[in-house]
Write a structure and sequence with these properties.
The protein is of the alpha/beta class. It has 23 helices and 31 strands. Helix 2 runs parallel beside helix 3 and helix 10 packs across helix 11.
């Protein structure tokens, strides 16, 4: 359902007429129109924030929007300029022109709100300020951001994209966003405003206003007809309410077949969810169990044995679908949010100079974007925005217990970038962060100062690329080279203890090794995966061949290289997949050149997995029937040991055992 909120009947009447909407309710104090055949429900709220908020609250309470539904706020706005051109039906003039809003400011509180713009669209974008009375002050902000000239770094020139902001004014948008965010994720809220005046309402006749809104309505409804395709994942895949679908499909007789307790029933629901997402015919398996006498269970004990038998049978079947990947090209960095206090930082200038076509939106704090309520992490990861921020507070943390320390007593990690350019289905970042957008902390020097304070006390081993892939972003940030140079400088200074850093990557580029300085205290850790696993679960990453070639090139250039066969991901053919992977790497590679090798199967904290299952309802990987041990989910213990033992044994054909680290050792 598309919910369209308009303040005035005159703004909505052309939609009501052309889309054949019928009034269905006035009992809430405002009119509701609907055409269920085309899934439109239109609400006329009245003017002002209070009326708008009441209308959104009342309608959402009555109809309980689902994750399939979308909200549109459509209406007129002041253009914020002295003079406006006449109306032009081709959209070239200001009057009648629709803007898609990317930033909403509530004037009375100065609070800002940001709808996600994750899809390509034909509209110009603007900011809007929600006010209590009409306003005519012209505001066009032009922040020219100079950057270094690539041909002569000493010459500073403006970048091709300045921050030019068109500000419109209305009386409802901020209230609608605040009320609706409890029911609609930011990517499912669209605010369309068409310029009807410059604040001087004396010049706006009813006939002129009607013509303006008719032109805008026609353009809006043309876009509306494309929304289902543009929001394919939302419409077709995202309808999920924890166990609601499973309970609808789950026949009580099936639970009785296994003599399920409540815990066993939840396990059975999990198995069925996994089966559906993996494209496995679980009903055929249960039918076979009935035919062979394994079901029905005669006791709770027999039911547990039958449930384990079901799990084993399910794991023998290779997944046949890749449900959550829609393989559509992402709308990468179409929007870049920049904290206003770092606009003149050199790293900011350098990054912005590489995105001449992106919309640049000035913000107060990265959390206004990154920490919004109710975000769709998966959808954002398909169409990421970039957020440029200044790091604050603590940035260096003790290493997590589920990460390998490689025998280092003082093990830390830090993140100068949050989130990764890649989109691996099993990545814990999907469960850790509230957003799928990428944050780059441009003041990396602040992290260096924190590292120095640690090195005043003792040695440190720091992983600097756990929460992103710095090597894949090197052209954008230059942070890998910066970290290497910092490590060299700090270790040459007798005032500090020794620093070692690890840079983990799935990047398959080979050209970077000619541009980066090597250092014995810098280790590049390559996560290696079989191509079948990459195809299923590691979207946007480099292929198996390219990663192997990149690692070998790094070895040729005397860089420290660690191999990470971690996480090992289960597949019915895992022995062949991981055995061939190891053989492929060590073909023509001297094992003595490898620093060491990390081995570990997939594991994740229960809180992260809970978040991932919420945001990835159609993923067979995150719905795998894991075991929970000490609040960490992992493969069943026997399977986990079997996979890890096999990989370690296969590696023993090429490397000494003292070079192989298992994460739980």
């Amino acid at each position: 359902m598309i919910y369209i909120f308009c303040a005035l009947y005159e703004e909505a009447k052309h939609i009501i007429k052309t889309e054949k909407l019928k009034i269905i309710s006035t009992d809430l104090g405002f009119s509701i129109y609907e055409n269920p055949d085309i899934s439109i429900r239109l609400i006329i709220t009245g003017t002002g924030e209070i009326k708008a908020a009441i209308a959104v609250g009342a309608v959402t309470a009555r109809y309980s929007p689902t994750v399939r539904d979308i909200l549109i706020n459509f209406g007129s706005a002041s253009g914020g300029c002295e003079d406006l051109a006449e109306i032009a039906e081709d959209g070239t003039a200001d009057l009648g022109k629709i803007y898609l809003i990317n930033k909403i400011t509530e004037k009375c509180t100065s609070h800002t709100y940001y709808p996600d713009v994750l899809i390509k669209h034909p509209f110009d974008e603007a900011e809007i300020m929600t006010v209590s009375t009409p306003i005519s002050n012209p505001i066009i902000v032009d922040i020219s951001i100079p950057t270094s000239n690539p041909k002569n770094p000493k010459i500073s020139t403006p970048i091709s994209t300045s921050v030019i902001t068109r500000t419109l004014y209305d009386m409802e948008a901020a209230a609608i966003y605040q009320a609706a965010i409890h029911f609609f994720s930011p990517d499912r809220m669209y605010f369309f405003k068409t310029i009807s005046d410059n604040g001087d309402l004396r010049k706006l006749t009813p006939e002129k206003f009607s013509l303006i809104m008719r032109i805008a309505s026609e353009r809006l409804m043309q876009f509306y007809k494309e929304l289902p395709a543009l929001n394919m994942y939302t419409f077709d895949k995202y309808a999920f309410d924890k166990y609601a679908q499973e309970k609808n499909d789950f026949d009580k007789k099936l639970s009785d077949l296994f003599m399920c307790s409540e815990t066993m029933k939840n396990m059975l629901i999990n198995y069925i969810k996994y089966s559906k997402n993996a494209g496995i015919d679980y009903q055929a398996i249960i039918k076979s169990m009935l035919e062979t006498g394994l079901l029905p269970a005669s006791s709770r004990k027999d039911g547990k044995k039958a449930l384990e038998n079901l799990r084993i049978r399910l794991l023998r079947v290779a997944p046949s679908t890749k449900n959550i990947q829609n393989n559509k090209k992402g709308y990468l960095f179409s929007h870049i949010y920049v904290e206003k206090n770092i606009l003149d930082f050199e790293t900011t200038k350098s990054i912005l100079s590489q995105f001449s076509d992106s919309k640049i939106i000035v913000i107060d704090n990265y959390k206004d974007i990154f920490c919004r309520k109710n975000q769709n992490v998966h959808k954002q990861s398909r169409s990421r925005a970039l957020i440029l921020s200044e790091t604050r507070g603590t940035n260096v943390y003790k290493g997590a217990p589920v990460c390998q320390s490689f025998g280092n007593k003082y093990f830390y990690y830090t993140s100068c970038v949050m989130n990764c350019i890649y989109d691996c289905e099993y990545c814990y970042l999907k469960g850790m962060y509230p957003s799928g957008h990428i944050v780059i902390n441009v003041n990396i020097e602040a992290i260096y100062e924190e590292v120095k304070s640690i090195l005043k006390k003792h040695d440190a081993y720091i992983c600097v690329s756990y929460d992103t892939d710095l090597l894949a972003l090197e052209n954008l940030t230059g942070f890998v080279k910066s970290w290497i140079n910092f490590t060299k400088e700090i270790n040459a200074n007798s005032d500090y203890h020794n620093l070692k850093i690890e840079i983990r990557t799935k990047c398959g580029r080979t050209d970077l090794w000619d541009t980066l300085p090597s250092d014995e205290n810098v280790i590049f850790a390559f996560t290696l995966s079989p191509q079948t696993i990459i195809d299923l679960y590691e979207d946007k990453t480099s292929s198996e061949v390219l990663r192997i070639n990149s690692a070998k090139k790094a070895l040729e250039k005397n860089f420290g290289v660690r191999l990470c066969i971690d996480p090992i991901i289960y597949h019915p053919d895992w022995r062949a997949l991981y055995g061939n992977l190891i053989d492929n790497f060590f073909n023509d590679t001297r094992s003595s050149d490898i620093t060491d090798i990390s081995v570990g199967s997939f594991r994740i904290s229960q809180d992260y997995l809970k978040n991932m299952r919420k945001s990835l309802p159609d993923s067979q990987l995150v719905w795998f029937p894991f075991e929970n041990e000490n609040k960490v989910y992992h493969y069943p213990s026997s399977l986990m040991r079997e996979m890890e033992d096999f990989v370690v044994e296969r590696l023993s054909n090429y490397v000494d055992s003292n070079k192989v680290f298992r994460w739980d050792n």
